[in-house]
Amino acid sequence: MGDEEVTWEKTRDTLQPLIKAPKLTEKLLKKPPFRFLHDVITNYIKGSGYFTDIYTADEMDSAKVTERDAKVQFLQKMINAVQTCLGITLTVRPLKVVSGLEPEATNQFLQAMAEVVIKKVDWKKALEKGSEEKKKKEEKKKEEKREKEKEK
Length: 152
Known about the structure:
Elements: H1 8-15, H2 26-30, H3 34-48, H4 57-60, H5 68-86, H6 94-98, H7 103-118, H8 123-151
C-alpha cells in the first residue's frame, strides 16, 4: 500500500468485485458508518471465503454488534488479520472509525482487505505464522521478566 493516494473510488474499484452487497457508494465510503463496514466485512468473508474463522456467529450478526467496545473489537480483528497477511501496518484506528472519523484510513484498510484476496494470500498460513510469532514474543518477554527477577 505505497504512498499512492487513498480514494473512495479505488476502494470501490478494488473491493466491489469481491462482494455482492452493500453497494460501495461515494457517500458511504467518504464517511463509512459502522453498520455499512460490518456489512462490507461480513459479505467479503462470505463472498471470498477468506477469514472465515476469525469471527463468532454472534459477531457476524450486526444486530448483536451494537456496543462501542464490540464494534471496536470487530474491526480490530479484521485489521489485525489483514496486517498479518500483508505484513504491513495500517494507520486505521478502530475507535476513530466507530466514531465516524478517519475515512481515508478506513478506505486504506478496505483496500488492503481486498488486496489479500487479489494477491491470493494464504490467509490461514499467514495467521498461523502470525500467531506463532506472537506466542514467541510473549514467551521471550516472560523469560526476560524472570531473568530480571532473578537479578534482584
